[in-house]
Amino acid sequence: ETGVTQSPTHLIKTRGQQVTLRCSSQSGHNTVSWYQQALGQGPQFIFQYYREEENGRGNFPPRFSGLQFPNYSSELNVNALELDDSALYLCASSLAEGAGYTFGSGTRLTVV
Amino acid sequence: GESVGLHLPTLSVQEGDNSIINCAYSNSASDYFIWYKQESGKGPQFIIDIRSNMDKRQGQRVTVLLNKTVKHLSLQIAATQPGDSAVYFCAGKHTGNQFYFGTGTSLTVIP
Question: Most buried in the list A62, B43, B55, B62, measured by CB within 10 Å?
């Protein structure tokens, strides 16, 4: 059984650029959530996808968007990057909505 | 909304001692809680969960206690080992699908 895998592990982007982060969910998990974790803080919920539909969203602007594919893998897209977007982006999968997560190791995004 | 906070940002314990990490939450409707462990450079790792219809749950060397009256939960680690050194987060959920995480407690185990 594979866990949650994220790519890339590290990324440096320039302010104003766009970025796409990728996540493969744990085998058998149909729900994917994305979290942003700033340095020294707890993860903050961005949104969740279930059966390819957005199924809950946190307090993030529309320039944060996502997709879930039929194989339950997912992408997080961030447009018009700002310096404050620098963070660890975590993908988590679960068997059902509201169930406990399995997290990936994250993508460390640095915006310069 | 919900806010979840840990009482102490750092905790140091001697190897072999028991550790207690505390967490308070604000929303009395929160019905599900999870403790996570995060090591440097890794994502959070599930430790143990508890639903609001319980007040105690035990795992291997870990116990979670939930006091709904004062909206407090704690994680107890028995016989703390160097490998337990990490940042510990509590996360709570009430409505919807998002978990609210605290800011974390950094546990250091002194050999």
Answer: B43
Distance of residue B103 Cα from the nearest chain A Cα, in angstroms: 4
Asked whether the beta carbons of A51 and A30 are under 8 A apart, the reply is: yes
- In DSSP terms, which residues pair with A88 in a beta bridge? A37, A108
Kindly determine whether residue B34 and residue A100, on different chains, have CB atoms separated by under 8 Å.
yes
| B43·A100 Cβ contact <8 A | no
C-alpha dihedral sign at B85, B106, B17, B58: negative
Q: Per residue of chain A (112 residues), what is the pLDDT tens digit?
A: 569 999 999 999 999 999 999 999 988 888 999 999 999 899 999 999 998 999 899 999 999 999 999 999 999 999 999 999 999 999 999 887 666 789 999 999 999 9
